[in-house]
Structure formats: C-alpha cells, structure tokens
Amino acid sequence: MRQKVEGLKSWEEVDRALLRVGQIDRQIEAIEARAQEVIEAAKGRAAAESKPLLQEKRLLTLKMEAFARRHMADLEGKRKKLNFGTISFRRSTRIVIRKALECVAALKGLGLRECIRVKESPDKERLRDLDDALLARVGAKRVTEEVFGYEVDREKVQEAA
C-alpha cells in the first residue's frame, strides 16, 4: 500500500528541501568517512598485532610437516592422533590451466563443450527489442513508470554551509 505524502506547497519549499537533502548527504558522508577511518585503523592494528602470531604459526606448521614427512612410517593410514590434535596427509589433485582462453578454444576444437562452464541469464537490453506479445510468451513483461529523481547542487549546498 502506497502512502500519500503531502507537505511542500511551493517551488521554494522544494528548493529548501533539496538544500536540506544535500546537507544530510554531506553529514552522512562525513559520518561514513569517520567510520571508515576507524575501521581502517583497527584493521591496521589487528594486522600488526597478528603478524608475529601468523609468522609463528607458519613456522610451526612447516616444522610439523617436515617432522611428519621424516616419520611417515609412524602415521597409521596417513594419520596420527596426538593429545592436542591430529597430523595427517591426504592426496590432493588439482587442475592447472596455463591460459584459460587457449584451453577453452582447445576444448571446443575437441568437441568437449561439456567441460566448458557457461552462465546463462536473460539479456534485458536485448529483451527491450521484443514486442509485448513475445515478452509474455517468454515470461517477461514491459513495465513503464514515471520515476522521481532529483539532483542536489553540491557546490551550492557547500556555499550555504
């Protein structure tokens, strides 16, 4: 249900409303800028505080892996349960593609299109060219409406501040 809004009675009142909207936008931008500064500063502090911990974790991980590789015979079925966790190895296979476009072209050339991922979605720009009957047949429709818009003159709002 749409709510009917009234209140402004002249173009001068609309102009003052534009001024106020511009002032509100400036205040919101200032608030968001301060918040972003706080966020960036907190991220910087967190990164600095965690850096030595991350380095220590990486070094310990490398040492555990080196030890486990030297003692593979002790791993029952590629896994060793310890008091504070488990050490294991698992076989991992991945596909490395040097040049994606060349790979796609080669797959097409070999008739392996099932190995190519394609995302399909309606092209709204092209649908604009269809008539309403055809749009209805494909489960779409054209909606035309008057959309309100405004543009604040930021320089004049700045001058009025």
Based on the model shown, name its key terms.
single chain, 161 residues, mainly alpha, 2 domains, two-stranded antiparallel sheet, flat
Please tell me the total number of domains: 2
What is the rounded distance between the termini?
38 Å
Q: Please give the largest β-sheet.
A: 2 strands, antiparallel
Silhouette? flat
Structural class based on helices, strands and sheet pairing: mainly alpha
The residue-averaged pLDDT reads 92
Q: List the uncertain runs.
A: none
Helical coverage, percent range: 40-55%
The strands making up the biggest β-sheet line up spatially as: 1-2
Query: Over the alpha carbons, how many angstroms does the gyration radius reach?
Result: 31 Å
Q: From N to C, what is the helix and strand string?
A: HEEHHHH
The share of residues in extended strands comes to under 5%
Number of strands: 2
> What is the count of helical runs?
5
